[in-house]
Design brief:
The protein has four helices and four strands; from the N terminus they run H-E-E-E-E-H-H-H. The chain is an alpha+beta fold. The longest helix has 26 residues. The structure holds zinc ion.
Amino acid sequence: MTLDEARLLAGVNERSQHLFRDGYYAKRLDEYIVEINTPDGETYEVDTVFETCSCPFYKAWQGRHDCKHLLGYPKLLGDQEQARQRAMRERTYSPHPEEEEALP
Ligand SMILES: [Zn+2]
């Protein structure tokens, strides 16, 4: 592996860990396929069983290196779930203005 290649892959690893923050969205199409929507409006499909992705990066490396979608989709799904639960909690538990005034 060349130094450039190592740097590139380190960047991919790093970026794969904050896809949610970067505006990516993952959706399970079925048991095996996760669809990734990128902030640029592209859509890629990650096959979680064969561990392949339909993005240009994955194709360019012919599967020798995982792309950030493949590396990052589990965390992306997890982050989305957390955000969803947080939103639900805030809706459920946000005190009514009158209640808030009654608090000591
Ligand atoms: Zn990919």
